[in-house]
Amino acid sequence: MAIVTQRIENALTQTFKFEGKEIPLHASMGWALFPNDGEELEVLIDKADQRMYTMKRIHKNNRKS
Fold first, then answer.
1. Is residue 64 helix, strand or coil?
2. Total-model pTM
3. Running DSSP on this structure, what letter comes out for residue 39?
4. What is the pLDDT of residues 17-37, one digit of tens each?
5. What per-residue confidence (pLDDT) applies to 64?
6. What does the DSSP assignment read for the chain?
7. Within 13 A of 16's CA, how many CA atoms are on the CB side?
């Protein structure tokens, strides 16, 4: 699932021009699977949110290197 998430994020990450300036566009996403990660919607959303923020931290740390 992480590979699919990464491919979607890569497809959505672009740079576009607006009024002569380059604007970077990035996407962040997390995922959760029913029922392994939970059976209630709130639990699944929380798990996906946790994964999204984990990935954002990883990407942020990689950019600093």
1. helix
2. 0.65
3. S
4. 999 999 998 778 888 999 999
5. 62
6. -HHHHHHHHHHH-EEEEETTEEEEE--------TTTT-SSHHHHHHHHHHHHHHHHHHHHHHHH-
7. 6
Decide: residue 40, CB within 10 A, 0-12 exposed, 13-18 middle, 19+ buried.
Answer: exposed
**22 forms bridges with which residues in the sheet?**
17
- Phi and psi at 34, nearest 5°, equal -90, 135
Report whether pLDDT(65) > 70.
no
Find where tokens 């994020």 sit.
9
Rounded alpha-carbon distances, angstroms, from residue 60 to 4, 8, 21, 54 = 20, 18, 23, 10
Q: How far apart are CA 5 and CA 25, in angstroms?
A: 16
